[in-house]
Amino acid sequence: MLALCSIDLNAYDLQVHEYRIRTATPDDLDGARAVMLDTVYRDFETGYVPRWHGDIVDPGAAYLAPVRHTLLVAVDERDASVVATAALDSRGPLHPPNPRHVAERYPSGATAQLRRVYVRPEHRRRGLARRLVTELLAFAAADGGYRAVYLHTDPAVTGAEGFWRSLGKVVHDEREDAGGGQSVVHFEVPLER
What we know:
Blueprint: E1 19-23, H1 29-42, H2 50-57, H3 59-64, E2 70-76, E3 81-89, H4 100-105, E4 111-119, H5 128-143, E5 148-153, H6 160-167, E6 169-173, E7 185-189
Parallel strand pairs: 4-5
Antiparallel strand pairs: 1-2, 2-3, 3-4, 5-7, 6-7
């Protein structure tokens, strides 16, 4: 005898989301700032550190005003909330705190640095970071003046190192330095033209 089973789909939260990836507007800045601040407090456990996170306070000046910079957002179409960010600027890594050879290899002006690729935890594992990075790489290629794409990441953040290894190559792993450096991993991501 076959037992028929009825499933009440309303009993399940299917979490079907549609996202729109776009260049941030001034109206998106509060939402983007919230994603960024939540990430530095929750994932990095550093909180806001002015010398590291100054761009978070005024992302408009850091990313919307300069022509060669950009800030992208992923917007959840259900409620128009910003759920992910990704930025690019023309500032290479500084020495210190970064190793001298990394700063020399990626000079400001010729380097597109990826920054603030952050996704709210409840929206992760849906391809948003990869889609955002793809758009940033297209932006860098269209600029025509960038010779390289650089980023660094904290490998203690769950999933960060594996994600960046899937997109680029490690150019320096500070965990291998005497004393462990800052425990930061530096990457170059191919710039396709």
